[in-house]
Amino acid sequence: MSDAAHPQLIRIEVDRRLGHEWDEWDGRPLPNQGNYDSPPRLFFQWSAAGLAAALGVVALGLYLLGPRIGLLVAGLPAYLWISLGIISGAAWFWWLLILTSYAINRSLLPAALAERGPFLRLMRVTSKVADRFGRRDWVENAAVKVYNALAVVRAKAVGKGELLLLIPRCLSKRSLEGVLALSGKYEVPVFVATRGQLARRVIKERRPRAVVAVACERDMVSGLHDVAGRVPVLGLTMTLPAGPCKDAGIDLVQLEKWVQVFVEEVRQGGRGAAGQEMRSPSPQGGEGDRG
User: What CATH number has the domain spanning 156-290?
Assistant: First the structure.
């Protein structure tokens, strides 16, 4: 009688694990070696187009359905048009306040009406619009820069242990070593987020008073939308020279600036320097330039 056959374990080793935001990646090299550095004006251009398109769709629907609505309730279409005009005016006025706040580096709106409120939803909607035209990553890069510029103006220092540094699992060895060095220098705990859900969970459990997050543009916009309304966040996007979710490079100089914004011991002068950094061109190239 032959020995019972041993079960076979088939294992496939992979050198990267794609996040859900990159499910459609076809394996080809990313444009510009995964560096989506874009000027902030790109976000304002796309967000204005998205806002105009959204209001236009509502107006078209009201134009087509207005006569039938009028048959049901006389005079209602007129009130709906007036309401749409008021909403449109308010939306464009708010958008102009956001633009002006960025331009003059000063908060013209409370956080709940700006980077910790409607602005997060505008980022998400603009991202979806840009994705349909193949410009998502560039527009999201610009959006994060605008968000940071709005957030850093009102950022406040926190006590030791109250700042959390979130990083992804896909950093290159050199970038990871740089992050750990900064963590030790400023005594800031680091959490490696293997998934977005775990990042949200650690924020909920540790209850930090501020967060500095590192992620690709796609994960950053998604994470800010879910978290930045509850806790102050500054974000740093990465370069992806090896494609998504592998050997990502970061600008360690800018990361240190964001940490300094929240660290009490170096608070003096930190915010102004960081705010100016947002308006200077980001370094180009791969990890060698950014790491």
Answer: 3.40.50
